[in-house]
Design brief:
Mean pLDDT: 91
CATH topology: Collagenase (Catalytic Domain)
Structural class: alpha/beta
Helix content: 40-55%
Largest sheet: 4 strands, mixed
Number of helices: 3
Number of domains: 1
Order of helices and strands: EHEEEHH
Shape: globular
Oligomer: single chain
CATH superfamily: Metalloproteases ("zincins"), catalytic domain
Distance between the termini: 18 Å
């Protein structure tokens, strides 16, 4: 995992969130590159091929929303890997983003 941009605190939060999501979804052997920077969307995930993914997240959010955005994009990453989603997969990602954020928080991951 490589995280660039943002402040140290944001990189630390992002690293813990991604690690928790990889464990939660039982994902192995992927290369996640995260870029924390201002963007016109809160975040997005791109599949770069060969189990490599780039996630961009805008840090100009509340902490809970920042984490939920990372979780949202990790749901998309899981969808890309499993091939299990309907349409764009957006409904599922929105459904899980705060539920999983609360779960990882309650488990003490952050």
């Amino acid at each position: 995992m490589k995280i660039i941009g943002g402040k140290k605190f944001e990189r630390d939060v992002a690293e813990k969130t991604v690690a928790w999501c990889l464990s939660h979804f039982n994902i192995n052997d992927v290369d996640v590159r995260m870029n924390i920077r201002r963007d016109e969307s809160w975040g997005y995930c791109e599949e770069d091929g060969d189990n490599k993914f780039t996630i961009v997240v805008d840090p100009e959010q509340t902490l809970r929303d920042f984490v939920a955005t990372i979780v949202h994009e990790m749901v998309h990453l899981n969808q890309y890997i499993t091939g299990e989603y309907r349409g764009t997969g957006e409904a599922e990602a929105k459904y899980f983003q705060y539920r999983l954020t609360d779960k990882l928080w309650n488990e003490g991951a952050l």
